[in-house]
Amino acid sequence: MLVKLIAFVLSNFSLSFLVLGLACSGISLIRMPKPLSRSQITEALLSYYCLMPIGLCLLYNFVMHVFFAEVSATFIGWPNSPFQYEVGFASLGFGVVGLLAFRGSYGLRIAAIVGPACFLLGAAGGHVYQMVHSRNFSPGNAGVVFWTDLLIPILGFIFLYLGMESASNGKSR
Q1: Backbone angles phi, psi at 37, to 5 degrees
Q2: In the prediction, which pLDDT does 170 show?
Q3: How far apart are CA 60 and CA 7, in angstroms?
Q4: For 39-51, how does the pLDDT look when each residue is reduced to its tens digit (9 = 90+)?
Q5: How do residues 65-120 score in pLDDT, each as one tens digit?
Q6: Confidence class of residue 35 from pLDDT cuts 50, 70 and 90?
Q7: Residue 171: per-residue pLDDT
Q8: Which of these, 87, 88, 81, 83, lies nearest to 62 by C-alpha position?
Q9: CA 142, 152, 43 angle in degrees (round to 5)?
Q10: pLDDT tier, 153 (very low <50, low <70, confident <90, very high otherwise)
Q11: Cβ 135 vs Cβ 129: under 8 Å
């Protein structure tokens, strides 16, 4: 049972990091003095979103595509190719920006969300193409990864929208 849980968490890492980010946001909010302001809630959601499903998730993606390229390719349903390394190093860049944005300015957070959103939404489009054109329904193409390629950018844009008010009032770093 434990082995299956670990396998699920690691193979569905984008969902795992998203849930972890939301949990960390919740824990940080529980520890704050009450009542909570909207800007405190938004700050917790936005900062841990940048840290977990952007920063750490994309660093994990880097490691998997660069150091475990054959495993990643098999999971996605592709043959291994030099493309794996390109995806990995793009993920490294986006992941580092996500880590910097964890405690960074609102402007840095915009960059940390918009760049990966383009990457993830483009990947989702690629997954759809592979499902239709090649009938690739491998878990790494048509499973949880596909849905989080859509959900993570959508949540990022929602969190950015909610954070605009705090940023315009000078409350955001």
Answers
A1: -90, 165
A2: 65
A3: 15
A4: 999 999 999 999 9
A5: 999 999 999 999 989 999 899 999 999 999 999 999 999 999 999 999 999 999 99
A6: very high
A7: 54
A8: 88
A9: 165
A10: very high
A11: no
Q: Specify the residue for token string 């595509």.
A: 65
Question: In one letter, which amino acid is 171?
Answer: K
SS3 of the chain: CHHHHHHHHHHCHHHHHHHHHHHHHHHHHHCCCCCCCHHHHHHHHHHHHHHHHHHHHHHHHHHHHHHCHHHHHHHHCCCCCCHHHHHHHHHHHHHHHHHHHCCCCHHHHHHHHHHHHHHHHHHHHHHHHHHHHCCCCCHHHHCHHHHHHHHHHHHHHHHHHHHHHHHHCCCCC
- Within 10 Å of residue 51's Cβ, how many Cβ atoms? 22
**Angle of CA points 13, 18, 23, to nearest 5°:** 120
Whole-number Å distance between alpha carbons of 16 and 19: 5
Residue type, 39: S
Radius of gyration over every alpha carbon of the chain, rounded to an integer in angstroms: 17
